[in-house]
């Protein structure tokens, strides 16, 4: 049973303090009482879109266990509000909180397509898959308004450059026309995140995301259009969705996914505090059990920063998760393979047209 002060439509239930900030904010009871007596709203819970102007847009990913070499994020912060999101901590570098600020202050990079084009035309650039997005969802609600992701996809298509997509939003189907053009040259791979088959679980974990039914339908439509799909069954959270691994794998496979990946949840940085506050307000009856099982996967702590282990976990609970995933691959993905994307075409199109010789 949720607590009375639960903020509907948001994942985080408060703004954690920014570790880099000199000052911290506190929402005091006397201030809330003043607002009540004055008939004022202490917090309107609205999303703000804030333009920023980076000098570059393609990021080199140095982490050895993320599964990508380069990423591009049209937006910082994410209105989807997934409570477990590892990207929350990055919002602190912009001077905001990893909590509610991450979901309500969305930084918009309108220059991203032009910066991407300059990168792809650079003499020093050699084609390698660039992933939209390695940090926050490129098809979050802001994309409806700004269409930056679509503009970037047009650049990738113009220069015949391989691109990956990670999203949990059915809005990706809006760009089916460009995706099919990219797929014709084996230049696109889409990763669809499916964390649970339960709508109730989805609503509390990922409050502003596409429904599970829509996500499975998205996998099916992309697959029917010969666009390769990998399903991200991530993160696996003990006591919340760990019992769903086999059913999740079967559902995404039945809808055409060629492979799936998963991670064991870890609550790094400020996310541990945000998640703990959330689960005690959202699932108070099993909060302690879930937190203890997460800690059991990471040597007794909610966070683990060790490369090669941090996303896999260790111990008996983590091993059970890995065993179930192995069984799922044997049952539902035995004869399926996700293709390697084509890097051979870009050099011919680097100057905007094919070379004659």
From TrEMBL:
PANTHER family: SLR0285 PROTEIN
Protein name, per record: PA0069 family radical SAM protein
Pfam families according to UniProt: Radical_SAM
Domain Radical SAM core intervals: 64-301
TM helices/strands, residue ranges: none
Coiled coil location: none
Keyword terms of this UniProt record: Iron, Iron-sulfur, Metal-binding
Domain of life: Bacteria
UniProt entry tagged with the keyword Iron: yes
